[in-house]
Amino acid sequence: MQPYFYSFQEFIAMGEHGPYVWSTWGITVLAIIGFIFYSLNQRRRLIKELKIQHARQQQRKQKTKRN
C-alpha cells in the first residue's frame, strides 16, 4: 500500500486542486461557526423575551387579585 501524498506540501496542493478544496473547507467551517453564533444569539433573545413575558403575566395576575 502506497500513500497518496508523499509529503505535507503535496497534501496541501491536492494535485493542484488545493485552492478549491481548502477554500471550500474554509467556507464550510465559517458557515457552521456562523450558524452556531446565530443560534446562540437567537436563544439568548428568546429567553430574554420569555422572561419579560412571564414578568408581565405575573403583573397582570397581581393586578387582577387586587381588583
TrEMBL record:
The chain crosses the membrane at residues 20-40. Signal peptide: none annotated. Keywords: Cell inner membrane, Cell membrane, Coiled coil, Cytochrome c-type biogenesis, Membrane, Transmembrane, Transmembrane helix, Transport. Belongs to the CcmD/CycX/HelD family. GO terms for cellular component: plasma membrane. It is found in: Cell inner membrane. This is Heme exporter protein D. Residues 40-67 form a coiled coil. It is a single-pass membrane protein. It comes from Psychrobacter piechaudii. GO terms for biological process: cytochrome c biosynthetic process; cytochrome complex assembly; heme transport.
